[in-house]
Amino acid sequence: MAALRTEIRGARDAGLTPVRTLFVGGGTPTRVDPSLLVDVLAEIPRTHNAECTVECNPDDVTASLLATYRAGGINRVSIGVQSTADHVLVSLGRTHVPRNVLTAIEAVHESGLETFNVDLIYGAAGETLDDWTRTVSTIVALDVPHVSAYGLTVEAGTVLATAPARHPDDDDLADKYERVDDLLGAAGLGNYEISNWALPGHECRHNAVYWSGGDYAGFGSAAHSHSNGRRAWNVRTPDRYVELVTGGVSPESSHEILDGATRAIERLQLALRTRDGVPLGALSDDDLRAFEGLVSVAGDRLVLTRAGRLLANEVSLRLRAL
Fold first, then answer.
1. Quick one: 66 and 153 in the same domain?
2. Is residue 201 domain-resident?
3. 123-136: buried (b, 16+ CB within 10 Å) or exposed (e) per residue?
4. What pLDDT is stored for residue 97 in this prediction?
5. CA separation for the pair 111, 36 (Å, rounded)
6. Residues 35 and 152 both lie in one domain
7. Paired strand residues for 304
8. How many domains does the chain have?
9. 56 and 161, same structural domain?
10. Both 120 and 171 in a single domain?
């Protein structure tokens, strides 16, 4: 945390402008003393109405923790629920139990925070469609204003990657995606990005920066940053990060410069995932015909249909910069 404070101060001294959004995640921030976390985050200049989110493990959420967060300007939390089925949580390697999810969400409702998110994951080994339906229905019943639901993905180098029998099935993932879309839609949460649903006014402003190809500053081990086509990332391990920062050396591991064409295509690929879609000319007439039923025309925009959301990668490969 001391190294993190040092890195942030260095960026501030170099001219870091007040941020409109702030997100603490990529680990388990609630394992850190909340007062210490708030003190470190106070080093980051923010606009008066900045959206400030902290990811939370359900086991760690208490009224006291949330009160400290709120007093420190944190106005949004994201709770890593993943599932409310015990055997699915075991399959995912999670340690919390479903009853702690209920307690955590009740505490958030009582905390006075402006909004919050629940993260869910579907497609784990042993999870049935009924398991998934009960998970989503439980979350809906708890009046959650924003839900992120992600299909389980297999990452190289993980234990899951070495166990093909436990890999998710594409058809199962599709069925579960349609089920969560139906249940959340019926509860009034609109899909505004392939994996994100929210009540009106509760959309995540921070993620919109990524989806629009905007600039962002990242602090901490493995943090990524982007500024005007220069994408950089810090060293991955905390011990190496601390060693470099305390030694007065930049923790940046490497970077890449994106040319104009690459940035334009990336923006389109990210925008395609959102409900605003892409400009009409981003697909040729031939591709429009080939993707009939996967994209729809909304004024001068092309927007994925629900069937298109399931095949978004296929559509994104045919996008062309204007």
1. yes
2. yes
3. bbbebeeebbeebb
4. 83
5. 20
6. yes
7. 295
8. 3
9. yes
10. yes
For 114, phi then psi, to 5°, come to: -65, -40
Q: Are 129 and 174 in contact (CB under 8 A)?
A: no
Q: How far apart are CA 116 and CA 38, in angstroms?
A: 18
195 and 116 both lie in a single domain: yes
Question: Could you list the residue range(s) of the whole structural domain that residue 177 is in?
Answer: 17-210
pLDDT at 138: 97
Give the pLDDT of residue 62: 97
Residues 37 and 54 in one domain: yes
pLDDT at residue 94, as a whole number? 85
The enclosing domain of 119 has a CATH number of: 3.30.750.200
Judge if 205 and 252 occupy the same domain.
Answer: no
pLDDT of amino acid 210: 95
Six-digit token pair at 259? Answer: 């040319």
pLDDT digits (tens, 9 = 90+) for 258-291: 999 999 999 999 999 999 999 999 999 999 999 9
Rounded CA separation 312/17 (Å):
35
Query: Does residue 101 form part of some domain?
Result: yes
Distance CA 203, CA 207 (A): 9
Strand pairing of 278-279 and 115-122? unpaired
Residues of the chain with pLDDT under 70: none
Query: For residue 86, what pLDDT is reported?
Result: 93
pLDDT per position as a tens digit, 153-187: 988 888 888 888 888 999 999 999 999 999 999 99
Beta strand spans in 75-133 (E) = 76-82, 115-122
The rounded distance, in Å, linking the Cα atoms of 84 and 134 is 8
Q: Residue 187 and residue 179: Cα distance in Å, rounded?
A: 13
Radius of gyration for the alpha carbons in the chain, expressed in angstroms and rounded = 21
For residue 265, being part of any structural domain is answered with: no
Q: Tokens 């000319």 belong to which residue?
A: 281
Same domain, yes or no, for 50 and 180?
A: yes
